[in-house]
Amino acid sequence: MTTKLRFLVAAGAALFALAIGVQTAGAQALDRILKDKKIRITAEVTSPPFGILDKDNKPTGSEIETARQLAKDLGVELELVQVTGPQRIPALQSDRADLAISSLSITTERAKSVWFSSPHGALSIVIGAGKNVNIKSAADLAGKKIGMTRATLEEQVVPKVAPPGTNIVFFDEHSATQQALLSGQVDAIGGAAFLINELAKRNPDKGIESKFTVMTAFYGIAVKPGNYDLLQWVNTWVFVNKQNGVLAKIYKEHTGVDLVDLPAL
Amino acid sequence: MRLFGLNDFLFILSATRWTILLSLLAFALGGLLGAVIAVLRISRFSAVRLAAASYVQLFQGTPLLMQLFLIYYGLSLFGLRLDAWTAVTIAYTIYAAAFLGDIWRGCIQAIPKEQWEASRALALGYAHQLFLVIMPQAVRIAIPPTVGFLVQLVKATAVASIIGFVELTRAGQLMTNATFQPMIVYPIVAVLYLSLCWPLSVWAQHLEKRFRVENVMGRRK
Amino acid sequence: MTYVFQFGIVFDRFPELLEGALLTIRLAAMALVLGLIVAVTCAYLRMSGPKPLRVLVGAYVEGIRNTPFLVQLYIIFFSLPGMGIRMDANQAALVGMVINFGAYATEIVRAGVQSVPAGQIEVGLALGLKRLQIYRFIVLFPAIKAVFPALASQFILLLLGSSVVSAISANELTAIANTLQSTTFRAFEVYIVVTLMYLAIAVAFRGLFAALYWCVFVRGRER
Fold this sequence. Notes:
The complex is a heterotrimer of chains A (about 260), B (about 220) and C (about 220).
Chain A: H1 2-19, H2 29-36, E1 38-43, E2 52-53, E3 59-60, H3 62-74, E4 77-82, H4 88-93, E5 99-105, E6 115-130, E7 145-149, H5 153-161, E8 167-171, H6 174-182, E9 188-192, H7 193-202, E10 208-223, H8 228-243, H9 246-255
Parallel strand pairs in A: 1-4, 7-8, 7-9
Antiparallel strand pairs in A: 2-3, 5-10, 6-9, 6-10
Chain B: H1 6-41, H2 46-60, H3 64-77, H4 84-109, H5 113-121, H6 126-156, H7 168-179, H8 182-215
Chain C: H1 7-12, H2 14-48, H3 51-65, H4 69-79, H5 89-114, H6 118-126, H7 131-161, H8 173-184, H9 187-222
Helix pairs in contact in C: 2-3, 2-5, 2-7, 2-8, 3-5, 4-5, 5-7, 6-7, 7-9, 8-9
């Protein structure tokens, strides 16, 4: 059964590669994965609801489940490669992982270092702060201390909208950024809307709320530059699972909101 | 989502074994390499001494974090892809050897020159002088600072978390993110480190005292 | 596709790295001076102070030496505000470094003091000096001389260990490096350059200490 599926998938990928005129000589990554019967995918387990540890401290979250589904469809064993946020891209570059499925938002900056698939999910970056902090738009950030986590989308987009006089400080871990807001070391933080909501729910006494949306972004699956064959298969996989509703189901289950319409890359 | 519970405590506790295992591995292998470094540093050939000293300077003079990153991610750019265990073992061996080599060199040099001269007068060769006369004395002085370094090593294993290695500190970070309660998690992490390191510290002090009393017999009031 | 190194991107942003390096040096140098004051005081209290203070200093030294620096920083930066003590990240980093270095240096200075021959102290007593005077005028100088290399090594550890303070958003060398690598995605180039910068700083400080030792302890004695 699985061998048959694997054959079909491999054949499909090969056909796809031929169809768009890619040299099959470059098709090594996918072959190797199929031969080893194992795919290595990044797991970033410190950013709920995308990746987190469950009650039994097993990895879970929308991105982890996406990785599981993908490995299952490919018919190979899944090896989760635990990474920290900033190590998602180095892990690909250094061949530690075949794919990065860790809510990696698609940006032109990142695309210089890795290749993205069509998006399989969406998130918005918001500014979160306590009720008594007066922030309504980007202009109000002037003179305030804003915390955010390095190597995230917010690190790229918030400084661009912040007016001069905004004091932006960076932390290495989401937990440190959140703690900085809770302990009053910063006035506000930038982050995924999900994270701000979770923080608000967990700390009702602080009255944390989303002040405004900085931008909405789409995240995709990334491969090491050069792995045409793998990327093609992943794109096919995203296309199929967008159509059959599997991606939307995983997304809804973990984030609690409906997945918006995903554009193609 | 969830509160910090027994399960989470056990998760952190079980990650402690990796901290212990990594410390032991680094100490054992780093000790072997460190002994070689120490001997090379007192070599009669200045080129050898210089090479060993440069090694110590290089690895004591750069952050462990950078060393680990370059060994794990950097070497794989050149096609040498090490798995996480191999990478941390190599990085920590190199790191521990730099410090132990330096500590032990100091201990060997602390042995009075007359000991070398006396053993030479007995017509012992260089190796015999070193291993039969000097080393047995140096080892005694070396034990307290060596145990002291072990404490430093245990805490240094925390850096392995940057390559996704789940030891005590990383386990703490993971639990902070899962439970949103850093002010419970970090004190627990601190207490676990304390329970690993404190006995070693006490032991080192005890050894130091014991050896000192013997050394300063004539000086006691 | 093999990886192509692009150091140009890193060198374009070199002024930022340099600024981070300067903060690293400043933090370490200030922590050295303040930490030594803490150490000399605590070493005295630990050996000759009243019993409760002795116990207190002992608890401070052991508590700090046996727990990771990162955890100490988190407590200073995130927990102290709850008790009304608020510092910005760079101040918290400095306080953390002083407390950390102070604990190690206390033990080192104490070992140095104990290495001073008892005869010297007896001479002081015979001259009718008080305890504090003996400590200040007779014991301290040879004690520091004896442990100078150990203090210098501990300082280098402090310097390199300061790379951890980026975790609480202090913007020293490692913090700048992390920001740089996450915006340029050139982690390897950034880390190689930064590693060399740390090495240069460490080597420079070692040279400085060797010169200091020679000026204060060697030349002084020849005179």
